[in-house]
Amino acid sequence: MNKLKSENTEFKQVVLLIEEARNRAFHKVNEELILLYFRVGKLVSEKVSAGIWGENTVEALAGFIQEKCPELRGFNRRGLYRMKQFYEAYTAPEFVSTLMTHLQKSENEAIKIVKTLLTQLQWSAHLLLLSKTKTPDEKLFYLHLAIQEKLSVRELERQLNSAVFERTALSNQQLKTTFTQLPQNFFKDPYIFEFLELPEGHSEKDLEKALISNLQKFILEIGKGFTYMGNQYRLQVGNKDYYTDLLFYHRDLQCLVLFELKIQEFEPEFLGKLNFYLEALDRDVKRPFENNSIGILLCKGKETEVVEYAMARNTSPAMIADYETKLISKTLLANKLHQLVLQLSNKDID
Known about the structure:
The chain is α/β, with parallel strands linked by helices. It folds into two domains: 2-161, no CATH class; 164-349, Trna Endonuclease, Chain: A, domain 1, CATH 3.40.1350.10. The chain has 14 helices and eight strands. The protein has helices spanning 2-49, 55-68, 77-91, 93-103, 107-118, 123-132, 136-148, 153-161, 164-175, 204-213, 215-222, 268-284, 304-311, 330-349; strands spanning 191-192, 226-231, 234-237, 240-243, 246-250, 255-261, 294-299, 318-324. The longest helix is centred in the N-terminal third of the chain and has 48 residues, at 2-49. The radius of gyration is 25 Å and the shape is globular. The mean pLDDT is 89. Keywords: Endonuclease, Hydrolase, Nuclease.
């Protein structure tokens, strides 16, 4: 029996080595493929921009490649123009300038970093980014998001369709008027739970159960750094028991994160209960090496001025966010973000 166990362990080690080698090979092939598309895109872009090549020439090039390398796919006329667009999008002065600002690097360093970033995603993911993003900030945001959270192409498409960039930007702008010590690019507002398919008259318990049943999709929405610790987590204070809604641990922030659910519009008294739970978590659950717990109050709507008043003297790391059970128009969110930026700019001027 012991011999079988030993062999089984050793066999698993061999399989693990094979899988690791496969992954390295896949990443190397993908890296070479993306760099190839980038270089071909560069050549086509330069020739077309200089007026040396026109549409007929690109069409002829596609036919030539098909004749010489019939096994290759993606090098038709449309594919070549996609490679041209790919090269131009990530070498455009606006994009390089944005990257230089974010990373505080020179232009040459920024372009080298761009190539390193690009090779970490599959071509199908890049096609999504090219078709569904507009500004350099948006492209860079989703590029980092896909790499950091190791998003599949399907997951990336969901994040693009649910306007994560606009929602994250909205929450960052709102944090400036509330609790400025909260980490940037960590929260969203609103959160989108289109995968729940809840009826209109759902209860808080219905919402909680639905989120737990769709835990993988919920974590994709809130961010992959979260580890689920439980629902109705018991906190004992004095002689009474209290139960929180959804408790998580965030690996990067090294802290507990509590999600409290409300199916109605935000009321100031909700914040008092959230702060009470955060204090109990920090005193009785948090470990000495961990950071203070963070609370996120998810409400079915909120009035900005009421939130601003409620948060004005709040000292706990907490945020109030909307949640929606249907996808929201990206245009609507972009307009909302634009209006909020204008409001904050006017306040600064005043």
